[in-house]
Write a structure and sequence with these properties.
Elements: E1 9-13, E2 19-22, E3 29-33, E4 37-42, E5 48-53, E6 58-64, E7 70-75, E8 87-92, E9 98-105, E10 108-113, E11 119-124, E12 129-136, E13 141-150, E14 157-163, E15 169-174, E16 178-182, E17 188-193, E18 199-205, E19 208-213, H1 223-228, E20 231-236
Antiparallel strand pairs: 1-20, 2-3, 3-4, 4-5, 6-7, 7-8, 8-9, 10-11, 11-12, 12-13, 14-15, 15-16, 16-17, 18-19, 19-20
């Protein structure tokens, strides 16, 4: 599915933010994957209160699943050193029990679950793979790791993704300037091209896909990409995303 540039709306430029999630039953507080661990942020004051200091490096994207658990990946801060496979994908349960679910992660990015809650998907960007696991919604356990889809793009790597109501994965190709639509069977069935290379993450709002992008590191070499780098794009795709979940903190 090629999307002409005309209908793509460009909004604003946004700085990097930590991953956040709503807390079930709270309109005031949200939970944050912050610099040193999990924290609760009071929205009215901006006050941050750590509930689990877990890491002293950069956090990666996070996601809540149907049972109210909050998964967050960590990685080395690239401003301090080159990322290595020291990262971990953590799972925080509603009772604040912390679990190390996947180790030896380099750059954790997309994470999500199938509509029937039987499969978990995960991206460690340098591998260029979307990984699938069998998922036990009752316990939060994962097993049977396998590759669902491998990105063949020579320049780009998979980044964040969103899953639509039909079970298809819309994954950003960071450095490749596009979104790929991958079927539940691991087949490439669609593509959206963007006017910047550093496409980072899509998300559904109704039947539209909102797509974030990052700074262009080689602006002299790719001036077209630098012009729209850091922008938020909107594309009408005609399908809705799966409902979002909340962290069920006890």
């Amino acid at each position: 599915m090629q999307t002409p540039l005309g209908p793509i709306g460009v909004f604003n430029h946004f700085p990097f933010q930590s991953t956040t999630a709503n807390i079930s039953g709270s309109k005031e507080d949200i939970i944050v994957g912050a610099k040193k661990g999990y924290a609760v942020l009071k929205q009215s004051t901006g006050k941050l209160r750590y509930i689990k200091k877990v890491w002293d490096e950069r956090d990666g994207p996070g996601k809540e699943e149907s049972a109210g658990r909050y998964w967050v990946g960590t990685m080395n801060d690239p401003k301090v050193q080159e990322p290595t496979d020291e990262g971990v994908l953590f799972r925080l349960d509603p009772d604040l029990t912390l679990n190390r679910m996947i180790e030896n992660v380099t750059i954790p990015n997309g994470i999500g679950w199938s509509a029937d809650d039987r499969i978990m998907f995960f991206v460690d960007s340098p591998t260029k793979d979307i990984i699938a696991f069998d998922f036990d919604a009752a316990t939060g356990a994962i097993s049977n790791r396998r590759v669902l889809f491998h990105v063949e793009d020579e320049e780009g790597v998979p980044d964040g993704f969103a899953i639509d109501s039909t079970g298809h994965i819309w994954v950003a190709i960071f450095g490749g300037g596009k979104i790929l639509r991958v079927s539940p069977q691991g087949l490439l069935v669609g593509e959206i091209r963007l006017p910047t290379r550093m496409v980072s993450c899509p998300g559904f709002v109704g039947n539209d896909l909102l797509i974030t992008s990052a700074e262009e590191p080689e602006s002299d070499k790719h001036p077209y990409s630098a012009e729209c780098a850091g922008s938020l794009f909107r594309v009408h795709v005609g399908v809705k995303g799966l409902p979002s979940n909340e962290f069920g903190m006890s």
